[in-house]
Amino acid sequence: MYATYLRRELAGRKKQTIIVAAGLAIAIALVIIVNSLAAGVRDAQTQALQSVYGVGTDLTVTGAQAEPGSGSAGGRFEFGQDGGETSDDGTTSLSQSRLMTDPMRSTLDASSVDTVASTDGVAGASGALSLTNTTFNGELPEAPTGTDDSTAEGGTDGQAPPSGGGGGGFGGGSFDVDSFTVLGIEPGDTEVGPLSSVELTEGRLLDADDESANVAVIDATYAASNDLAIDGTIDVGGTQMQIVGIVASTSSEADTAANVYIPLSVAQSIAGVGDVVSTVYVQAESADAILSVQSAVQEELPDATVSSQSDLAATVSGSLSSASSLISSLGTWLSILVLAVAVALAVLFTISGVSRRTREFGTLKAIGWSNGRVVGQVAGESMVQGLIGGIGGLVIGLAGVAAINLISPTISTASAADTTAGAGGMRGGMPGALSTAAETTTDIVLSAPVSIGIVLAAVGLAIAGGLVAGAFGGWRAARLSPAEALRSVG
Question: How many C-beta atoms lie closer than 10 Å to residue 104's C-beta?
Fold first, then answer.
């Protein structure tokens, strides 16, 4: 009988049911879309940070910023008196590769890795040496009559021409400078650090037996653009390294941390920098321990820079930051406002409906209906209206999310992180730049994932809105006196 009476009452008040359900549906759809977009932006931010940190890395420890003028010579190349090869026409060909650390940031002693690993709360630590390999290739024509041969072969002081390209300015000579990033890593360590965010696409990764071997793993994109393949070789700092593996980022929108990965000890030897690292990647035992571990490591290494993902996230700029701010503030408050208005309308329409049904409720009470039964009737009607609104909002919200995923809007992320912080700064650039930070811009396709939690929460909010309206309406109906209700319509 209850269900029959409920159905008849809702069918007899179609206008009220439609208005209440529509208001709740719009509010619920907005909640679903806003929350899905917020989740999408968080995923996009994670993708942007993965190329810098790597999955499973909670903290990074890097050297302090170097004093101006205290760095290395940067892009200087030096050739001896007999440097280069001279052809029959007198043209001298010069070629040299150098492997250099970032001149604007100091390195850390390799013992820092053990210091960090022994800190309370640290689950794992891995050291890496971030380097840039720069190769100079040039041709200098035969020196004009009356010119010292040493000038033609490398300059009066044995230095190569300034970096650049093309002829002119050097007797018609031509030269170019090519560079790529190199990361010296601890072989076999894939749980924390840059290699934790890559997947093997061909060959193998570096293992413990490769500690002193001249082997390399390269980025798939770099390999494709430079025609490199497994079992081939690549010149790193003048040493031929055998390519044993090719890797790609686990995210299609993110880059790997470097173009080339080689064993740490080999990188230290070729670069001639000694037993040092540029970055220590740290994994905490739990998420709750990250802040305490950060403080403890900073205390152990006061001259180093200890950064967390949240620190790096603060440097993310561009449309990603704007979208995140917009969704977090405007979107959330708009959802709350619309939901509050929808519930208020449901309450007003329910109370208004109860007032119009004074005679009906008076009669029901006169024939024996208790206040609880009257309240239950009104609350049941409102809950059904809320459920209808929730289902409608779910359909509209999912349609909106599907439209967003179909359009696939692209947002850009620009992160100004220290060049050593990600072990891959200055990708393809010259070392010795007058900047301590490398700004990288990445285009990320924004998606709007929907979770079961969001769906259940949205439907729950709709039903809760209906119950709130039913509670107010039921309270109003329970206060009606049967005698007064019948007299008021007599």
Answer: 23
In a domain, 283, yes or no: yes
**In a 10 Å sphere around its CB, with 0-12 CB exposed, 13-18 middle and 19+ buried, how is residue 144 labelled?**
exposed
Domain enclosing residue 224, as ranges:
64-303
The dihedrals phi and psi of 114, each to the nearest 5 degrees, come to -65, -35
The answer as to whether 423 is a domain residue is no
State how far the Cα of 365 lies from the Cα of 477, in Å rounded to an integer.
10
112-138 residue pLDDT tens: 999 999 999 999 899 999 999 988 776
Q: Which of 414, 411, 440 is nearest to 315 (CA)?
A: 414
Kind plus residue range of the DSSP H or E element containing 264? helix 264-271
Domain boundary among 247, 269, 303: 303
225 and 197 housed in the same domain? yes
Roughly what angle, to the nearest 10 degrees, separates helices 371-407 and 2-12?
A: 60
- For 52-75, write each residue's pLDDT tens digit: 544 457 888 988 766 554 444 444
CA angle 67, 72, 76 (to 5 degrees): 140
Instruction: Please tell me the total count of domains within the chain.
Output: 2
Please give, one letter per residue, the 3-state secondary structure of 203-260: ECCCCHHHCCCCEEEEEHHHHHHCCCCCCCEEEECCEEEEEEEEEEECCCCCCCCCCE
For the chain, the farthest-separated pair of C-alpha atoms sits apart, in whole angstroms, at 126
Q: Which of 303, 334, 353 is the last residue of a domain?
A: 303
- Type of residue at 389: G
pTM above threshold 0.85: no
